[in-house]
């Protein structure tokens, strides 16, 4: 069977290059999408089409896309426009050649296709400069089933002298429509991934980060671009991209005089000139692209399917329910505090205990955020029996054990800072500016890479019962500079830091393929597919207020799947908010992701205790649907009416988990009705309400049977009206 599939793929690969009078049509295809380029040897490669599948591509041999305004020639947009010739928009590539020449013109030099496996086809389009020894490979990996195309670029110095890469994007996409609506994600600490949508007007809109570390706390390298109207959930043409890169990035949307929208995405070129020596290559990160003519719901499902398979560690494995010590204990604990927490967690049916910050440092004990970072030895005053004792206790209680590290950082008050001042990121003689009382280690330096790897290695080696690491990073880069890089290459810092980080991740994954790792950076400060592929999950935000979380998770889950979304129930009010929110609402929101708790479990008593215990049982029942199912957003929390609802549907459409939330006061005469989505119209479904608190049901059709057709066309009614009332339903084939 495998052979047959591969031979069919080979046939389709050979059929994707159509030749006519030396002109080639180059196709990049997934099951439902097609990208088309046309090429003539030694001429620029034209970007012809990107959208729903097209079978007959012969017409593209004749098609013209755009007229050059100041010449009589028709000029199609290029595959990868370099700065030079008549290209006066922001270029995808800008070089300074060895003789100081500032322009580059890329022409077609051939193409290659490779069937990587049953699901992935690689296409490389080779470009070269006509006068200078510069090779540029534009690479596409097309994921057939998930309808995802990853685009990246390699620039090679094929000459004998150095040249400088001033900027190189991962992707260039030209679009032509009546209007363009950009959705991007903006935020700050405790309010990450807030969705913004705007109509683009002539000019350039840039979304970027120059923070390098914790880059996505304020902006995200993920976007949606809707044609001819705001993005809809189930209709309309939408292009999407998400840059797999954990450092500085720039997305630019340039609306030009011909009405074309020119999208560029990649590493931020700001202060980042990269000098390439002979035979050296510079490889960009991948831009993860997809398209839907049926709205953003399908975009999300494409990303989730792809991510679970290709951009997430252990994407096919159920995630445990976690109790994290942070909000329950902060830095104030001893052994008994922690073992008590574990004992209580076990009673709730929790499956893992994670010891957060505060367990290390002896000369400079980590009793607050002002000391100890860098000194990764257990604090013997707080924990005299070591980490092994705690991990064994967890396992004896039937829990897994995890532990927190922040290995890229150092407190000035630490043994490490005194021993290795040359490892700290700094700008010559200027002050090293602390942030959260800490400095950043220079991961462009291989010795620092070794230190970070060894830290991970040593921490994990403290006990065979450590099965999870929370990797945090709580500051970004300012006053940039490296003692390791030469003075000519200081601008390499941005690229080399991320590459250094990824090489550490690679070494860790080679040695510890099974360990679970959480991606955290003051919450969602490092949320991108480049880092996520080495991790099992991400901490979406330090804000566990469920009302705020509905928005943060809405943004995060537009691209990143629920299975990876750590969502914890905390006390209310807690450190982020004075607002008191019901326990049921807190659980119901957290259950839309990877459920966990972040509080003192002994504080949940009486009726709340019974509720929480049962909610965990209910979550275990719907967990495979939430973690592996298809997400259908029904009502956005951004809608003015003050409701929010969503559902996950199992791939075989036999089960679904439905969630609805009331976000404001609704008059009791307002009846909440909601049409479901994603079900099989021909199946019968029984609906059961879960997470019922104090016997108060919100759905009076519980245990009744409905057809999928009815549920999707007529919907269900719920008694939700007051702020922070919520519903969870199990919808199961009868
Ligand atoms: C920031 C993280 O986001 C929190 O969850 C917690 O781990 C603290 N750091 C600990 O310092």
Describe, in plain words, how this protein is organized in 3D:
- This protein is α+β, with helices and mostly antiparallel strands.
- It has three domains: 6-298, Distorted Sandwich (Beta-galactosidase, Chain A, domain 5), CATH 2.70.98; 322-628, Aldolase class I (TIM Barrel), CATH 3.20.20.70; 632-733, Immunoglobulin-like (Sandwich), CATH 2.60.40.1180.
- Strands 6, 7, 8, 9, 11, 12, 14, 15, 19 and 20 form a ten-stranded antiparallel sheet that branches. Strands 21-22-23-26-27-28-29-30 form an eight-stranded parallel barrel, surrounded by six helices.
- α7 runs parallel beside α8 (493-511) and α10 runs parallel beside α11.
- The model is unreliable at 1-17 (pLDDT under 50).
- The chain binds (2R,3S,4R,5S)-2-(hydroxymethyl)piperidine-3,4,5-triol.
- Residues 326, 356-357, 404, 472, 474, 520, 522-523, 539, 542 line the site of (2R,3S,4R,5S)-2-(hydroxymethyl)piperidine-3,4,5-triol.
């Amino acid at each position: 069977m495998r052979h047959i599939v591969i031979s069919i793929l080979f046939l389709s690969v050979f059929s994707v290059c159509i030749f006519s009078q030396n002109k080639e049509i180059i196709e990049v295809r997934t099951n439902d999408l097609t990208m088309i380029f046309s090429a003539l040897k030694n001429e620029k490669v034209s970007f012809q089409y990107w959208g729903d599948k097209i079978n007959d591509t012969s017409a593209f041999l004749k098609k013209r896309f755009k007229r050059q305004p100041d010449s009589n020639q028709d000029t199609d947009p290029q595959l990868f426009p370099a700065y030079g010739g008549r290209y006066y928009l922001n270029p995808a590539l800008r070089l300074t050649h060895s003789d100081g020449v500032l322009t580059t013109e890329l022409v077609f030099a051939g193409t290659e296709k490779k069937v990587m496996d049953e699901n992935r086809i690689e296409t490389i389009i080779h470009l070269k400069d006509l006068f200078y020894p510069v090779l540029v490979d534009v690479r596409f990996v097309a994921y057939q089933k998930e309808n995802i195309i990853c685009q990246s670029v390699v620039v090679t110095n094929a000459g004998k002298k150095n040249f400088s890469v001033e900027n190189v994007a991962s992707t260039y996409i030209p679009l032509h429509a009546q209007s363009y609506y950009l959705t991007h994600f903006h935020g700050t600490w405790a309010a990450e991934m807030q969705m913004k949508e705007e109509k683009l007007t002539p000019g350039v809109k840039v979304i970027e980060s120059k923070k390098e570390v914790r880059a996505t706390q304020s902006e995200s390298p993920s976007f949606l671009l809707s044609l001819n109207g705001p993005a809809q959930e189930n209709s309309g043409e939408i292009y999407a991209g998400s840059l797999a890169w954990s450092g500085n990035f720039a997305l630019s949307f340039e609306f030009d005089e011909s009405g074309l929208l020119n999208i560029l995405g990649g590493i931020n070129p700001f202060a980042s000139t990269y000098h390439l020596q002979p035979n050296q290559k510079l490889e960009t990160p991948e831009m993860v692209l997809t398209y839907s003519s049926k709205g953003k719901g399908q975009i999300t499902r494409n990303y989730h399917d792809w991510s679970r398979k290709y951009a997430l560690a252990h994407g096919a494995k159920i995630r445990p329910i976690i109790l994290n010590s942070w909000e329950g204990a902060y830095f104030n604990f001893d052994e008994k505090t922690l073992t008590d927490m574990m004992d209580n967690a076990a009673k709730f049916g929790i499956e893992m205990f994670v010891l957060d910050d505060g367990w290390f440092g002896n000369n400079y004990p980590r009793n607050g955020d002002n000391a100890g970072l860098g000194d990764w030895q257990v604090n013997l005053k707080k924990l005299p029996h070591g980490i092994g004792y705690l991990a064994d206790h967890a396992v004896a209680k039937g829990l897994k054990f995890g532990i927190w590290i922040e290995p890229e950082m150092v407190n000035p008050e630490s043994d490490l800072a005194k021993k290795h001042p040359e490892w700290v990121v700094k700008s010559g003689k200027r002050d090293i500016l602390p942030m959260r009382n800490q400095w950043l280690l220079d991961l462009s330096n291989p010795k620092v890479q070794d230190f970070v790897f060894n830290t991970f290695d040593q921490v994990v080696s403290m006990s065979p019962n450590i099965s999870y690491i929370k990797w945090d990073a709580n500051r970004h880069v300012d006053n940039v500079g490296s003692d390791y890089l030469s003075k000519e290459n200081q601008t390499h810092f941005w690229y080399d830091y991320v590459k250094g980080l990824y090489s550490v991740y690679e070494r860790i994954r080679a040695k510890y393929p099974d360990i679970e790792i959480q991606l955290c950076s003051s919450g969602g400060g490092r949320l991108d597919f480049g880092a996520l592929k080495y991790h099992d999950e991400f901490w979406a935000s330090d804000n566990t207020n469920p009302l705020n979380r509905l928005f943060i998770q809405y943004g995060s889950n537009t691209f990143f799947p629920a299975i990876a979304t750590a969502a914890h129930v905390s006390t209310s009010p807690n450190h982020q908010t004075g607002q008191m929110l019901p326990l049921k609402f807190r659980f119901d929101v957290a259950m839309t992701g990877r459920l966990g708790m972040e509080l003192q479990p002994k504080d949940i008593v009486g009726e709340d205790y019974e509720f929480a215990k049962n909610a965990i049982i209910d979550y275990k029942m719907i967990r495979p649907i939430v973690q592996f199912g298809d997400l259908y957003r029904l009502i956005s929390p951004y809608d003015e009416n003050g409701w929010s609802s969503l559902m996950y549907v199992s791939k075989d459409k036999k089960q679904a988990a439905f969630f609805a939330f009331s976000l404001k006061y609704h008059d009791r005469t307002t009846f909440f009705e909601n049409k479901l989505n994603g079900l099989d119209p021909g199946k019968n479904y029984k609906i059961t309400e879960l997470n019922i608190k104090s016997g108060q049901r919100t759905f009076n059709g519980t245990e009744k049977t409905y057809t999928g057709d009815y549920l999707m066309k007529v919907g269900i009614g719920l008694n939700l009206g007051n702020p922070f009332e919520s519903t969870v339903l199990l919808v199961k084939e009868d």
